[in-house]
Amino acid sequence: MIAIENLNVLDSTQIIIGEAIKKLGYSTEMYELLKEPLRVLHVRIPIQMDNQKVRIFTGYRAQHNDSIGPTKGGIRFHPDVNEDEVKALSIWMSLKCGIVDLPFGGGKGGVICDPREMSFGELERLSRGYVRAISQIVGPNKDIPAPDVMTNSQIMAWMMDEYSRIREFDSPGFITGKPIVLGGSQGRETATAQGVIIMIKQALKIRGKNLNEASVVIQGFGNAGSYLAQFLHESGAKVVGISDVYGAIYDEDGLDIPSLLDRRDSFGTVTKLFSKTITNQQVLEQKCDILVPAAIENQITQENAAKIQAGIIVEAANGPTTIEATNILTDRGVLIVPDILANAGGVVVSYFEWVQNNQGYYWSEAEIESKLQDRMEKAFDNVYNVHETRGVNMRLAAYMVGVRKMAEASHLRGWI
Ligand SMILES: NC(=O)C1=CN([C@@H]2O[C@H](COP(=O)(O)OP(=O)(O)OC[C@H]3O[C@@H](n4cnc5c(N)ncnc54)[C@H](O)[C@@H]3O)[C@@H](O)[C@H]2O)C=CC1
Ligand SMILES: O=C(O)CCC(=O)C(=O)O
């Protein structure tokens, strides 16, 4: 009988970090340092709802390791947010920043809530309340938040305004993913998807295939998934399946992406408009060349890994594939571009946004795109090279590349 899989993402992250640290020859003390964030703040945020009742929301901000520089990472508004998830997400941010060589450690935040059931006013009060609650541990040189699941540039704008009021000076560098007029960067809105498409092209090159011959299934149609669908469609690839939290649609002849993009709502939902849908699990198992999970964690598990038909998986989402599934897929010869490499385009352009805020001088979209492409291609080559030369799977290779600089910096600071 197959053992039931442990779906706790902090546990699985710690297992892989442990393996990476061992392979690189670091001590067990280094593992003890890096297996958990240095700091986790648990906050309770009282918010007056539109019905005049007060509701207390729970939130977190985790800061994994600041040996290289300030911590950096998004804020998630989602009903399933929990402390272990936020901790794991902060560790992934550290690894991601290591892979694309940014002067940051990892941070991540989350609030347990469902923005789909909240008014604009309630969301604004919650966003401001969260910033007040975490204001002592964040800042442009301490910990710099950004968008993640169900947060967006409007929420970043409210948060930046609240932080600037608390500090009594304009602080655009406190947060990234802002609207352009408030110091946002060209290309941040689309950066995660841009990075993913660069990774898809690298993976196809290894497999000797062209993008315009490829069929793609994307799970999730929000910021990452929908822009990716648009870019793939514009590049001549065939997007055959997409999904949102309510279900999925699939057509092996290709979906009408422009029409789906027109009809999606601000939470990345569109499938409710269709009478014939399949489930989110079914869409993963449909025929395609490339599968892009772009929604949430634990979507590809030991239950469905053997049924995946794609030959390449590029993880736009954080943590979509379990350790067991990674092993099954790797044994089957599926090329996995792991999350901490594949979706790093978002934090790369966030870094560019922070640099532009600090210098007060802004770059063009073409400059951002070319800088992003350079970093992502280099990162892919580094990870692929470790995968080949050390004979480890792509996920472990990415962890090894991601953890190295942070371990070195922690050592040189005299922490270990
Ligand atoms: N937005 C960004 O810049 C970055 C996002 N990511 C990751 O990409 C993934 C998606 O993030 P965004 O596109 O920003 O979020 P989003 O909130 O814009 O979109 C999320 C999408 O996933 C779907 N979804 C939500 N819960 C689901 C569930 N239980 N089952 C199936 N589908 C579900 C939603 O309907 C929506 O289509 C997340 O894992 C996030 O951490 C990673 C790097 C950067
Ligand atoms: O843009 C950023 O700083 C971080 C984005 C993020 O949360 C992620 O990469 O998971």
Automatic annotation (TrEMBL):
Keywords: NAD, Nucleotide-binding, Oxidoreductase
InterPro entries assigned to the protein according to its UniProt record, in alphabetical order: Aminoacid_DH-like_N_sf, Glu/Leu/Phe/Val/Trp_DH, Glu/Leu/Phe/Val/Trp_DH_C, Glu/Leu/Phe/Val/Trp_DH_dimer, Glu/Leu/Phe/Val_DH_AS, Glu_DH, NAD(P)-bd_dom_sf, NAD_bind_Glu_DH
Domain called Glutamate/phenylalanine/leucine/valine/L-tryptophan dehydrogenase C-terminal: residue spans: 185-414
CDD domains reported in the protein's UniProt record: NAD_bind_1_Glu_DH
Record: active site: 108 (proton donor)
Record-marked site positions (Important for catalysis): 148
Gene Ontology biological process: L-glutamate catabolic process
Binding, substrate: 72, 96, 350
Chain coiled-coil ranges: none
Name used for this protein in its record: Glutamate dehydrogenase
